[in-house]
Amino acid sequence: MSSSLLQSRVPTALSFSSSIAGGTKPQWRFTSAPAVTFTRRTRNSTIHAKIREIFMPALSSTMTEGKIVSWIKSEGDVLSKGESVVVVESDKADMDVETFYDGILAAIVVAEGESAPVGAPIGLLAETEAEIEEAKAKAAGAGSSAPSTPAASAPSPPPPPAPVAAAPTPVAAPVAADGPRKIVSTPFAKKLAKQHKVDINKLVGTGPFGRITPADVEAAAGIAPAKSSAAPVTAAAHAPAAAAAAAPAKSAPTFAEIPGATIVPFTTMQAAVSKNMIESLSVPTFRVGYPIITDALDALYEKVKPKGVTMTALLAKAAAMALVQHPVVNASCKDGKSFTYNSSINIAVAVAINGGLITPVLPDADKLDLYLLSQKWKELVEKARSKQLQPHEYNSGTFTLSNLGMFGVDRFDAILPPGQGAIMAVGASKPTAVADKDGYFSVKSQMLVNVTADHRIVYGADLAAFLKTFAKIVQEPDSLTM
Hints:
Elements: H1 2-9, E1 16-19, E2 27-30, H2 35-46, E3 51-55, E4 65-71, E5 78-79, E6 84-89, E7 94-98, E8 103-108, E9 115-117, E10 121-126, H3 132-144, H4 148-153, H5 162-166, H6 168-172, H7 187-195, H8 214-220, H9 231-238, H10 240-251, H11 268-280, E11 285-293, H12 295-304, H13 311-325, E12 347-349, E13 351-353, E14 356-358, E15 361-362, H14 370-385, E16 399-403, E17 422-426, E18 430-435, E19 441-454, H15 460-475
Parallel strand pairs: 12-16, 16-17
Antiparallel strand pairs: 1-2, 3-10, 4-6, 4-9, 5-8, 6-7, 8-10, 11-19, 12-15, 13-14, 17-19, 18-19
Protein backbone atom coordinates (compact mmCIF):
# COMPACT_ATOMS: atom_id res chain seq x y z
CA MET A 1 0.00 0.00 0.00
CA SER A 2 2.84 2.40 0.85
CA SER A 3 4.48 1.43 -2.43
CA SER A 4 1.45 2.43 -4.52
CA LEU A 5 1.11 5.70 -2.56
CA LEU A 6 4.66 6.67 -3.38
CA GLN A 7 4.22 5.78 -7.01
CA SER A 8 1.15 7.99 -7.27
CA ARG A 9 3.11 11.08 -6.11
CA VAL A 10 6.06 10.83 -8.52
CA PRO A 11 6.13 11.59 -12.23
CA THR A 12 5.15 8.79 -14.63
CA ALA A 13 8.72 8.61 -15.84
CA LEU A 14 9.61 7.04 -12.48
CA SER A 15 8.67 3.52 -11.45
CA PHE A 16 9.60 1.70 -8.27
CA SER A 17 9.34 -1.88 -7.10
CA SER A 18 9.56 -3.06 -3.53
CA SER A 19 9.72 -6.29 -1.66
CA ILE A 20 8.83 -6.61 1.97
CA ALA A 21 9.54 -9.93 3.54
CA GLY A 22 8.36 -10.49 7.10
CA GLY A 23 10.02 -7.98 9.38
CA THR A 24 12.80 -7.03 7.01
CA LYS A 25 13.23 -3.45 5.89
CA PRO A 26 11.72 -2.57 2.52
CA GLN A 27 14.19 -2.54 -0.35
CA TRP A 28 13.57 -0.19 -3.21
CA ARG A 29 14.85 -0.74 -6.72
CA PHE A 30 14.71 1.68 -9.64
CA THR A 31 13.68 0.25 -13.00
CA SER A 32 14.80 3.53 -14.63
CA ALA A 33 17.03 6.44 -13.60
CA PRO A 34 15.00 9.59 -14.06
CA ALA A 35 16.41 11.69 -11.16
CA VAL A 36 17.71 14.45 -13.45
CA THR A 37 14.41 14.61 -15.32
CA PHE A 38 12.51 15.00 -12.02
CA THR A 39 14.74 17.87 -10.91
CA ARG A 40 14.43 19.70 -14.20
CA ARG A 41 10.67 19.45 -14.28
CA THR A 42 10.38 20.79 -10.72
CA ARG A 43 12.69 23.70 -11.48
CA ASN A 44 10.86 24.66 -14.64
CA SER A 45 7.50 24.56 -12.90
CA THR A 46 8.58 27.09 -10.24
CA ILE A 47 9.61 29.83 -12.66
CA HIS A 48 6.61 32.11 -13.18
CA ALA A 49 7.34 35.81 -12.75
CA LYS A 50 9.24 37.57 -15.52
CA ILE A 51 8.40 41.07 -14.38
CA ARG A 52 9.50 41.70 -10.80
CA GLU A 53 8.76 44.60 -8.48
CA ILE A 54 11.46 46.56 -6.68
CA PHE A 55 10.01 47.29 -3.25
CA MET A 56 10.66 50.10 -0.80
CA PRO A 57 12.91 48.40 1.78
CA ALA A 58 12.77 48.73 5.56
CA LEU A 59 16.15 50.28 6.33
CA SER A 60 15.55 50.43 10.08
CA SER A 61 13.23 48.96 12.67
CA THR A 62 11.33 52.26 12.99
CA MET A 63 11.01 53.06 9.29
CA THR A 64 7.47 53.05 7.92
CA GLU A 65 8.01 55.21 4.84
CA GLY A 66 10.97 56.04 2.61
CA LYS A 67 11.76 58.89 0.26
CA ILE A 68 13.49 58.45 -3.09
CA VAL A 69 16.57 60.68 -3.01
CA SER A 70 17.80 59.73 -6.50
CA TRP A 71 17.70 56.91 -9.02
CA ILE A 72 21.21 55.68 -9.75
CA LYS A 73 19.93 53.78 -12.77
CA SER A 74 17.57 54.95 -15.50
CA GLU A 75 14.77 53.20 -17.30
CA GLY A 76 16.20 50.79 -19.86
CA ASP A 77 19.47 50.16 -17.96
CA VAL A 78 20.60 46.55 -17.63
CA LEU A 79 21.05 45.58 -13.98
CA SER A 80 23.08 42.84 -12.34
CA LYS A 81 22.23 41.19 -9.05
CA GLY A 82 23.73 43.17 -6.14
CA GLU A 83 24.05 46.39 -8.14
CA SER A 84 22.91 49.67 -6.54
CA VAL A 85 19.77 51.00 -8.20
CA VAL A 86 18.34 53.80 -6.08
CA VAL A 87 19.21 55.95 -3.05
CA VAL A 88 16.51 55.94 -0.36
CA GLU A 89 16.19 58.34 2.56
CA SER A 90 15.06 56.49 5.67
CA ASP A 91 14.20 58.09 9.00
CA LYS A 92 17.89 58.34 9.87
CA ALA A 93 20.15 57.98 6.83
CA ASP A 94 20.49 57.82 3.04
CA MET A 95 21.29 54.32 1.81
CA ASP A 96 21.83 52.64 -1.54
CA VAL A 97 19.29 49.94 -2.40
CA GLU A 98 20.51 46.98 -4.43
CA THR A 99 18.61 44.70 -6.79
CA PHE A 100 18.22 41.04 -5.93
CA TYR A 101 17.83 39.96 -9.57
CA ASP A 102 19.40 40.40 -12.98
CA GLY A 103 17.25 42.23 -15.48
CA ILE A 104 16.30 45.52 -17.11
CA LEU A 105 14.90 48.51 -15.20
CA ALA A 106 11.69 48.72 -17.22
CA ALA A 107 9.73 51.36 -15.30
CA ILE A 108 10.23 53.74 -12.38
CA VAL A 109 7.06 53.80 -10.29
CA VAL A 110 8.08 56.32 -7.59
CA ALA A 111 9.99 59.32 -8.91
CA GLU A 112 12.81 61.22 -7.21
CA GLY A 113 11.59 63.34 -4.31
CA GLU A 114 8.46 61.24 -3.77
CA SER A 115 7.79 58.93 -0.82
CA ALA A 116 6.31 55.46 -0.55
CA PRO A 117 5.43 53.14 2.35
CA VAL A 118 7.73 50.26 3.21
CA GLY A 119 6.91 47.33 0.95
CA ALA A 120 5.33 49.42 -1.81
CA PRO A 121 6.66 48.92 -5.36
CA ILE A 122 9.01 51.70 -6.50
CA GLY A 123 10.18 50.17 -9.79
CA LEU A 124 9.61 47.28 -12.18
CA LEU A 125 12.29 44.89 -13.42
CA ALA A 126 11.93 42.93 -16.68
CA GLU A 127 13.95 39.89 -17.70
CA THR A 128 14.07 40.64 -21.43
CA GLU A 129 13.57 43.62 -23.73
CA ALA A 130 10.38 42.04 -25.05
CA GLU A 131 8.81 42.45 -21.61
CA ILE A 132 9.69 46.14 -21.16
CA GLU A 133 6.51 47.38 -22.81
CA GLU A 134 4.45 45.00 -20.71
CA ALA A 135 6.11 46.32 -17.55
CA LYS A 136 5.52 49.94 -18.60
CA ALA A 137 1.88 49.14 -19.30
CA LYS A 138 1.62 47.55 -15.86
CA ALA A 139 3.07 50.68 -14.23
CA ALA A 140 0.86 52.99 -16.27
CA GLY A 141 -2.21 50.85 -15.58
CA ALA A 142 -1.83 51.40 -11.85
CA GLY A 143 -2.16 55.14 -12.37
CA SER A 144 -4.68 55.16 -15.23
CA SER A 145 -7.20 52.95 -13.42
CA ALA A 146 -7.64 55.54 -10.66
CA PRO A 147 -9.14 58.42 -12.70
CA SER A 148 -12.22 56.34 -13.48
CA THR A 149 -13.55 57.01 -9.99
CA PRO A 150 -13.43 60.83 -10.11
CA ALA A 151 -14.86 60.74 -13.63
CA ALA A 152 -17.99 59.05 -12.30
CA SER A 153 -18.43 61.64 -9.58
CA ALA A 154 -17.51 64.64 -11.77
CA PRO A 155 -21.09 65.57 -12.75
CA SER A 156 -22.22 65.69 -9.12
CA PRO A 157 -20.57 68.93 -7.82
CA PRO A 158 -23.14 71.46 -9.19
CA PRO A 159 -25.94 70.54 -6.71
CA PRO A 160 -24.64 70.93 -3.10
CA PRO A 161 -26.17 67.67 -1.79
CA ALA A 162 -24.57 65.61 -4.57
CA PRO A 163 -21.19 64.96 -2.88
CA VAL A 164 -23.02 63.26 -0.01
CA ALA A 165 -25.02 61.03 -2.35
CA ALA A 166 -21.98 60.16 -4.48
CA ALA A 167 -19.79 59.37 -1.48
CA PRO A 168 -20.47 55.60 -1.35
CA THR A 169 -19.20 55.14 -4.93
CA PRO A 170 -15.47 54.97 -4.09
CA VAL A 171 -16.21 52.49 -1.30
CA ALA A 172 -18.28 50.16 -3.44
CA ALA A 173 -15.85 50.07 -6.37
CA PRO A 174 -13.09 48.07 -4.67
CA VAL A 175 -15.46 45.25 -3.82
CA ALA A 176 -15.03 44.00 -7.36
CA ALA A 177 -11.24 44.00 -7.09
CA ASP A 178 -9.81 40.56 -7.63
CA GLY A 179 -7.41 39.05 -5.11
CA PRO A 180 -5.35 40.75 -2.40
CA ARG A 181 -3.58 43.97 -3.26
CA LYS A 182 -1.08 46.25 -1.56
CA ILE A 183 -2.66 49.36 -0.09
CA VAL A 184 -0.65 52.53 -0.83
CA SER A 185 -1.79 55.71 0.86
CA THR A 186 -0.42 58.95 2.22
CA PRO A 187 0.16 59.23 6.00
CA PHE A 188 -2.47 61.98 6.26
CA ALA A 189 -4.98 59.78 4.45
CA LYS A 190 -4.38 57.01 7.01
CA LYS A 191 -4.90 59.50 9.82
CA LEU A 192 -8.16 60.72 8.32
CA ALA A 193 -9.35 57.15 7.75
CA LYS A 194 -8.79 56.33 11.40
CA GLN A 195 -10.46 59.56 12.52
CA HIS A 196 -13.57 59.04 10.39
CA LYS A 197 -13.65 55.24 10.88
CA VAL A 198 -13.25 54.49 7.17
CA ASP A 199 -11.86 51.09 6.13
CA ILE A 200 -8.93 52.20 3.98
CA ASN A 201 -8.56 48.68 2.56
CA LYS A 202 -11.84 49.12 0.66
CA LEU A 203 -10.90 52.38 -1.07
CA VAL A 204 -9.63 52.90 -4.60
CA GLY A 205 -7.05 55.68 -4.71
CA THR A 206 -7.14 58.53 -7.19
CA GLY A 207 -3.53 59.57 -6.65
CA PRO A 208 -0.46 58.57 -8.69
CA PHE A 209 -0.31 54.79 -9.26
CA GLY A 210 -3.51 54.29 -7.30
CA ARG A 211 -2.34 55.96 -4.10
CA ILE A 212 -5.15 56.77 -1.66
CA THR A 213 -5.33 60.50 -0.95
CA PRO A 214 -7.06 62.45 1.85
CA ALA A 215 -9.75 63.48 -0.68
CA ASP A 216 -10.56 59.80 -1.26
CA VAL A 217 -11.05 59.23 2.47
CA GLU A 218 -13.19 62.35 2.87
CA ALA A 219 -15.36 61.29 -0.05
CA ALA A 220 -15.83 57.84 1.50
CA ALA A 221 -16.76 59.44 4.81
CA GLY A 222 -19.40 61.60 3.11
CA ILE A 223 -17.65 64.90 3.78
CA ALA A 224 -18.47 67.58 1.22
CA PRO A 225 -15.61 69.64 -0.29
CA ALA A 226 -14.64 72.59 1.90
CA LYS A 227 -15.01 75.08 -0.98
CA SER A 228 -18.83 74.82 -0.89
CA SER A 229 -20.08 77.18 1.82
CA ALA A 230 -23.76 76.34 1.36
CA ALA A 231 -23.23 72.59 1.59
CA PRO A 232 -23.18 72.30 5.42
CA VAL A 233 -26.51 74.10 5.79
CA THR A 234 -28.21 72.11 3.06
CA ALA A 235 -26.70 68.82 4.18
CA ALA A 236 -27.84 69.37 7.75
CA ALA A 237 -31.42 69.74 6.63
CA HIS A 238 -31.14 67.08 3.94
CA ALA A 239 -29.81 64.02 5.74
CA PRO A 240 -28.89 63.17 9.36
CA ALA A 241 -26.06 60.98 8.05
CA ALA A 242 -24.30 64.02 6.60
CA ALA A 243 -24.44 65.81 9.96
CA ALA A 244 -23.01 62.76 11.70
CA ALA A 245 -20.21 62.53 9.16
CA ALA A 246 -19.37 66.22 9.49
CA ALA A 247 -19.19 66.08 13.30
CA PRO A 248 -15.70 64.49 13.53
CA ALA A 249 -14.31 67.22 11.25
CA LYS A 250 -15.12 69.84 13.91
CA SER A 251 -12.90 68.07 16.43
CA ALA A 252 -9.79 68.68 14.33
CA PRO A 253 -7.86 71.71 15.67
CA THR A 254 -7.78 74.75 13.42
CA PHE A 255 -5.20 77.50 13.64
CA ALA A 256 -5.30 80.98 12.22
CA GLU A 257 -3.11 81.46 9.19
CA ILE A 258 -0.33 84.00 9.64
CA PRO A 259 0.12 86.22 6.57
CA GLY A 260 3.45 85.57 4.86
CA ALA A 261 4.09 82.32 6.76
CA THR A 262 5.79 79.44 4.94
CA ILE A 263 4.80 75.81 5.52
CA VAL A 264 7.74 73.40 5.41
CA PRO A 265 6.86 69.68 5.62
CA PHE A 266 8.88 67.44 7.91
CA THR A 267 11.80 65.59 6.43
CA THR A 268 11.80 61.84 6.96
CA MET A 269 14.24 62.26 9.84
CA GLN A 270 12.24 65.05 11.48
CA ALA A 271 9.10 62.93 11.24
CA ALA A 272 10.92 60.07 12.97
CA VAL A 273 12.14 62.39 15.74
CA SER A 274 8.60 63.72 16.19
CA LYS A 275 7.23 60.19 16.46
CA ASN A 276 9.85 59.20 19.05
CA MET A 277 9.20 62.30 21.14
CA ILE A 278 5.47 61.58 21.22
CA GLU A 279 6.19 57.99 22.32
CA SER A 280 8.36 59.34 25.14
CA LEU A 281 5.34 61.09 26.65
CA SER A 282 3.92 57.70 27.65
CA VAL A 283 6.95 56.92 29.85
CA PRO A 284 6.89 58.08 33.52
CA THR A 285 10.15 59.96 33.93
CA PHE A 286 11.87 61.97 36.62
CA ARG A 287 14.97 64.17 36.63
CA VAL A 288 17.92 64.55 38.96
CA GLY A 289 20.58 67.28 38.71
CA TYR A 290 24.17 67.13 40.01
CA PRO A 291 26.97 69.77 40.10
CA ILE A 292 30.46 68.44 39.28
CA ILE A 293 33.86 70.15 39.65
CA THR A 294 35.71 69.77 36.34
CA ASP A 295 39.17 71.29 37.01
CA ALA A 296 40.91 67.89 36.83
CA LEU A 297 38.93 66.82 33.75
CA ASP A 298 39.75 70.09 31.98
CA ALA A 299 43.44 69.61 32.74
CA LEU A 300 43.34 66.05 31.37
CA TYR A 301 41.55 67.27 28.25
CA GLU A 302 44.30 69.77 27.51
CA LYS A 303 46.83 66.91 27.66
CA VAL A 304 44.99 64.44 25.44
CA LYS A 305 43.46 66.93 22.99
CA PRO A 306 46.58 67.03 20.78
CA LYS A 307 46.25 63.25 20.43
CA GLY A 308 42.79 63.58 18.92
CA VAL A 309 40.70 62.96 22.03
CA THR A 310 37.47 64.96 22.25
CA MET A 311 35.54 66.05 25.32
CA THR A 312 32.62 63.95 24.10
CA ALA A 313 34.83 60.85 24.22
CA LEU A 314 35.93 61.71 27.77
CA LEU A 315 32.34 62.13 28.98
CA ALA A 316 31.18 58.98 27.18
CA LYS A 317 34.00 56.96 28.72
CA ALA A 318 33.24 58.34 32.20
CA ALA A 319 29.53 57.53 31.83
CA ALA A 320 30.30 54.00 30.63
CA MET A 321 32.60 53.35 33.60
CA ALA A 322 29.90 54.59 36.01
CA LEU A 323 27.27 52.38 34.35
CA VAL A 324 29.43 49.32 34.99
CA GLN A 325 28.88 49.91 38.70
CA HIS A 326 25.18 50.79 38.32
CA PRO A 327 23.72 48.43 35.67
CA VAL A 328 20.11 49.31 36.51
CA VAL A 329 20.64 52.76 34.92
CA ASN A 330 21.73 50.93 31.75
CA ALA A 331 18.60 48.76 31.78
CA SER A 332 15.51 49.28 29.62
CA CYS A 333 11.76 48.68 29.77
CA LYS A 334 10.05 48.13 26.42
CA ASP A 335 6.78 46.35 27.15
CA GLY A 336 5.70 47.96 30.41
CA LYS A 337 5.70 44.57 32.14
CA SER A 338 9.40 43.76 32.57
CA PHE A 339 12.81 45.34 32.21
CA THR A 340 16.03 44.09 30.67
CA TYR A 341 19.56 44.29 32.03
CA ASN A 342 21.63 45.01 28.91
CA SER A 343 24.86 43.05 28.72
CA SER A 344 26.56 45.75 26.63
CA ILE A 345 27.06 49.40 27.52
CA ASN A 346 26.39 51.25 24.27
CA ILE A 347 26.64 55.01 24.69
CA ALA A 348 24.51 56.95 22.19
CA VAL A 349 25.51 60.59 21.74
CA ALA A 350 23.09 63.17 20.31
CA VAL A 351 24.41 64.95 17.22
CA ALA A 352 22.67 67.81 15.42
CA ILE A 353 22.87 67.49 11.65
CA ASN A 354 21.31 69.40 8.80
CA GLY A 355 17.57 68.80 8.94
CA GLY A 356 17.39 66.69 12.06
CA LEU A 357 18.95 64.93 15.02
CA ILE A 358 20.65 61.55 15.23
CA THR A 359 22.35 59.54 17.97
CA PRO A 360 25.42 57.59 16.76
CA VAL A 361 26.28 54.75 19.14
CA LEU A 362 29.64 53.90 20.71
CA PRO A 363 29.30 50.14 21.35
CA ASP A 364 30.98 48.62 24.41
CA ALA A 365 32.26 52.04 25.44
CA ASP A 366 33.42 50.68 28.80
CA LYS A 367 35.78 48.19 27.11
CA LEU A 368 37.45 50.52 24.60
CA ASP A 369 40.44 52.63 25.60
CA LEU A 370 40.04 56.39 25.40
CA TYR A 371 42.02 56.90 22.20
CA LEU A 372 40.26 54.14 20.26
CA LEU A 373 36.92 55.40 21.54
CA SER A 374 37.66 58.92 20.33
CA GLN A 375 38.75 57.65 16.90
CA LYS A 376 35.56 55.64 16.61
CA TRP A 377 33.52 58.68 17.56
CA LYS A 378 35.08 60.84 14.83
CA GLU A 379 34.25 58.18 12.24
CA LEU A 380 30.63 58.03 13.42
CA VAL A 381 30.22 61.81 13.28
CA GLU A 382 31.53 61.92 9.71
CA LYS A 383 29.14 59.16 8.66
CA ALA A 384 26.23 60.84 10.47
CA ARG A 385 26.76 64.18 8.71
CA SER A 386 26.97 62.46 5.33
CA LYS A 387 23.87 60.38 6.23
CA GLN A 388 25.74 57.10 5.78
CA LEU A 389 25.17 55.50 9.19
CA GLN A 390 24.00 51.90 9.16
CA PRO A 391 20.97 51.03 11.32
CA HIS A 392 23.01 49.26 14.01
CA GLU A 393 25.15 52.39 14.34
CA TYR A 394 22.27 54.56 15.57
CA ASN A 395 19.54 52.33 17.04
CA SER A 396 21.49 50.12 19.47
CA GLY A 397 22.10 52.61 22.29
CA THR A 398 21.43 51.65 25.90
CA PHE A 399 22.23 55.06 27.46
CA THR A 400 22.27 58.48 25.79
CA LEU A 401 24.51 61.49 26.32
CA SER A 402 23.46 64.96 25.17
CA ASN A 403 26.03 67.72 25.49
CA LEU A 404 25.16 71.37 24.85
CA GLY A 405 28.05 72.72 26.88
CA MET A 406 29.97 73.79 23.77
CA PHE A 407 27.16 76.28 23.07
CA GLY A 408 27.47 77.85 26.53
CA VAL A 409 24.24 76.25 27.86
CA ASP A 410 24.61 75.85 31.61
CA ARG A 411 21.69 73.46 32.20
CA PHE A 412 18.84 71.76 30.36
CA ASP A 413 16.60 68.70 30.52
CA ALA A 414 16.75 66.00 27.84
CA ILE A 415 13.83 63.88 26.63
CA LEU A 416 14.21 60.16 27.24
CA PRO A 417 14.61 58.14 24.00
CA PRO A 418 12.10 55.27 23.67
CA GLY A 419 13.50 51.94 24.78
CA GLN A 420 16.23 53.34 27.04
CA GLY A 421 16.44 53.75 30.78
CA ALA A 422 18.18 57.13 31.08
CA ILE A 423 19.67 60.10 29.22
CA MET A 424 22.23 62.56 30.59
CA ALA A 425 22.16 66.26 29.71
CA VAL A 426 25.55 67.96 30.13
CA GLY A 427 25.90 71.72 30.50
CA ALA A 428 28.91 74.00 30.11
CA SER A 429 31.77 74.05 32.60
CA LYS A 430 31.96 77.57 34.03
CA PRO A 431 33.95 79.31 36.79
CA THR A 432 31.85 79.14 39.94
CA ALA A 433 32.34 80.24 43.55
CA VAL A 434 32.36 77.01 45.58
CA ALA A 435 32.52 76.65 49.36
CA ASP A 436 34.50 73.79 50.90
CA LYS A 437 33.52 71.87 54.04
CA ASP A 438 35.17 74.49 56.25
CA GLY A 439 33.19 77.32 54.66
CA TYR A 440 36.04 78.82 52.63
CA PHE A 441 35.15 79.98 49.14
CA SER A 442 37.21 79.41 46.05
CA VAL A 443 36.58 79.66 42.32
CA LYS A 444 36.44 76.34 40.49
CA SER A 445 35.18 75.15 37.13
CA GLN A 446 31.83 73.46 37.60
CA MET A 447 29.30 71.88 35.26
CA LEU A 448 25.74 70.79 35.90
CA VAL A 449 24.43 67.47 34.62
CA ASN A 450 20.76 66.49 34.62
CA VAL A 451 19.69 62.88 34.09
CA THR A 452 16.20 61.97 32.91
CA ALA A 453 15.28 58.38 33.81
CA ASP A 454 12.45 55.90 33.41
CA HIS A 455 10.91 55.68 36.88
CA ARG A 456 9.54 52.21 36.18
CA ILE A 457 13.03 50.72 36.48
CA VAL A 458 15.26 53.46 37.92
CA TYR A 459 14.50 55.03 41.30
CA GLY A 460 15.81 58.19 42.91
CA ALA A 461 18.40 56.42 45.05
CA ASP A 462 19.69 54.50 42.01
CA LEU A 463 20.17 57.68 40.00
CA ALA A 464 21.77 59.56 42.89
CA ALA A 465 24.28 56.74 43.41
CA PHE A 466 25.10 56.67 39.70
CA LEU A 467 25.67 60.43 39.57
CA LYS A 468 27.89 60.28 42.65
CA THR A 469 30.05 57.64 40.95
CA PHE A 470 30.11 59.62 37.68
CA ALA A 471 31.16 62.78 39.55
CA LYS A 472 34.01 60.92 41.29
CA ILE A 473 35.33 59.62 37.95
CA VAL A 474 35.21 63.15 36.45
CA GLN A 475 36.89 64.71 39.48
CA GLU A 476 39.60 62.00 39.53
CA PRO A 477 39.93 61.28 35.80
CA ASP A 478 43.19 59.32 35.75
CA SER A 479 41.24 56.09 35.38
CA LEU A 480 39.89 57.28 32.03
CA THR A 481 43.28 56.84 30.35
CA MET A 482 44.04 53.40 31.80
